[in-house]
Amino acid sequence: MFQLQYLLSIDGLITGLIAFFFGIVVLIKNKKNVINQTLFLLTLATAWWAFSYWRWLSVYDNRELALFWTRLLSIGSVLIPLFYFHWIVSLLKLNQKKIKLIILSYFVVLLFLFFSFSPLFVKEVTPILHFAFWPKAGPLYSLYLFFVYFGLVFYSIYLLLKHYKQSKGLKRVQIKYVLLGSILGFGGGATNFFLWYGIDILPLGNVLVVSYPILFSYSIVVHRLMDIKFVLRRSFVYLASLSTILIFAISAQYAFERFFMEISVWAEFAILILSVSAFPIISKAYYRLANKYFFTSLYDSQKVIMDLSDNLRSTLELKKIYKFISDTFLNSFHAKSSAVFLYNEKSGKYAAEHNRGFNLRKKRKLAALKQLRKLSITQNESIIIEELRHSSYKKYKAAINMLDGLGIEILTPLNIKDKNIGFIALGRKESADIYNNEDLQVLKIIGAQAAIAVENAILYEEAKKFNIKLKKEIRQATAELRAANINLKRLDVAKSEFISIASHQLRTPLTVIKGYISMVLEGTFGKLNQEEFDSLKKAYESNERLIKLVENLLNISRVESGRLKFDFLEARLEKIAGNVVEELSAEARAKGLALNYQQPSKPLPKITLDEGKIRQVILNLIDNSIKYTKKGSINVSLEQINDNIQFCVSDTGMGITEDDLPKLFKKFSRGKDTPLVHAGGSGLGLYVCKMMVEAHSGKVWCESKGKGKGAKFCFRLPIK
């Protein structure tokens, strides 16, 4: 008599289990997303209603218990339309626009919930047709049906239909399945209401209630509604693997007890070890099974990306890079075919550089792909051909028809900054499923990595070709360069020898001239009048400059030829500097300059140096400051900085421009305006200083804030 009641009670149990499991999976995917939250609440309310439905129809002889379960069921039935409406509003991104209506709906539902356990809502339960007990509607129940159940559900379906007409592509398909699940679920559930009002129509449509989580699941898994496929497939594999292991363990234990009467601790331990060891093997088997028959692909996205990244970094060969990319998509996504198209700037076409599975025939170059070039740069996302057909078929008609003809379902752009160099093309998956959000995310990351790898490989190939060409040209020029180099070396040796010989030949007569002029100036050959004295004084100074020039030339020649000898001994740098300052003080006073020597507060460590060479460096630097300073002061300082002793001479002279600073220590180089102040310089002094300091493993440099702001020359020598 109550067979239908029993069947509907089992249907309620199944619906509750499916809704509850579906809700948990949705919530695990993204707890913070309002769409996931509201869908979870909807599935929870449905599970509440379904489990109460099961318990109510399991009662055959207790009126009070049946009444309790129908009233408990009413809580779920009141909440279902509310959470459904809130979910649809969230799904369509209308939360802000419909916020007042949402708040009002929650308030109205709370009022009905307050009366859900009163006779005003569920009056009583009585036997009817094939059921031991069926509820009778109270006066408030009709208001609930009108304002909440039918009101919120019909309004939600209206919103879905409105957006269905406006949407295109994948979004339209998603809404279609949500609409279908909504109509079947709520339509089937509505068949329960007839008996509440004594109308003899059986609630056979109740079996359709389970269709809403099933169709929503389909929309999620196949059409990327919320993309919780990853959680679903992992759950499937885990539960299937665990169930298999439990069945094996229970069967093994039963067999032991059946044939050996009792099972020992060692046997239980062996079963446990076998079960744990078999779990990974069984999981892999279920992965392959699920991948082939239930889900498109099962893969660890992070591992796929990392493995491909490692492979791409390991080579610069284009063929290997194409193979790595193709293997990744064929093995992970289980795509039937893949190809790589690169853009040729000269022809303006995309050419297939690698192909596995596509029947390209003579279509190795695809001119129509150029239509999608701008879209791929601005969008920088994978292009799904089916979605493009729904949204922009007229605009990209040629490209879409061509790609459809080749069986290409998705194109991932190879973009570098604002330039597209090609596409990765993928065909259908083995399971005929579409590419989900996880796939698209992986494609985006791999596309960026692959673009860089392909670009680097292309540049490497071009560099190799250029190197081959360059080697040929170098071979032709090498013989001439070698001959020219030999001649240059000979000329350099001849130059150095000439400078050395000329300097030696000049130094002796210049020294004699200096001696005789000095004697004449001192009055050895008779007293001179002022005019004669001034003329000879100028000749003496010019002779001195020539002697210094010759000495510098000799030093340069010796250093460059490796013949300059150094006499390294321990000495105190402050003593050398003090002597030079004292020697040049008279010259500074004659120009009206203050020459200040800031001696260290405590003795500095001795350092190993050639006293004569370093004395010449200090002399040159201070002498330069005197020559190029018209008024003001010159300050000489010494200090220890870590394991070095630093000498500096700063002045208030003409300063040095930023352009002249890098040239100062080069051979025969002078500042732009220095001849206006001191015309007799040769441009060798600072070059000689640099060579002497570097021969002591030191460093010399110059600082200046600009023209007319003075200059500071420093060198630093290591203590050890």
Question: How would you describe the overall organization of this protein?
Answer:
- The protein is an alpha+beta fold and 720 residues long.
- It has helices spanning 3-29, 34-57, 63-91, 99-114, 139-166, 169-190, 193-196, 211-223, 229-260, 265-293, 301-313, 318-333, 373-379, 385-392, 397-406, 437-522, 530-561, 573-590, 611-627, 674-677, 685-695, and strands at residues 122-128, 131-137, 338-344, 349-356, 365-366, 383-384, 410-416, 419-426, 569-571, 594-598, 607-609, 633-641, 644-651, 699-703, 712-718.
- The protein has a six-stranded antiparallel beta sheet, sandwiched between helices. A five-stranded mixed beta sheet has the order 10-12-13-15-14.
- A hairpin with a 2-residue loop joins strand 1 (122-128) and strand 2 (131-137).
- 32% of the residues are buried.
Give the SSE map:
Elements: H1 3-29, H2 34-57, H3 63-91, H4 99-114, E1 122-128, E2 131-137, H5 139-166, H6 169-190, H7 193-196, H8 211-223, H9 229-260, H10 265-293, H11 301-313, H12 318-333, E3 338-344, E4 349-356, E5 365-366, H13 373-379, E6 383-384, H14 385-392, H15 397-406, E7 410-416, E8 419-426, H16 437-522, H17 530-561, E9 569-571, H18 573-590, E10 594-598, E11 607-609, H19 611-627, E12 633-641, E13 644-651, H20 674-677, H21 685-695, E14 699-703, E15 712-718
Parallel strand pairs: 10-12
Antiparallel strand pairs: 1-2, 3-4, 3-8, 4-5, 6-7, 7-8, 9-11, 12-13, 13-15, 14-15
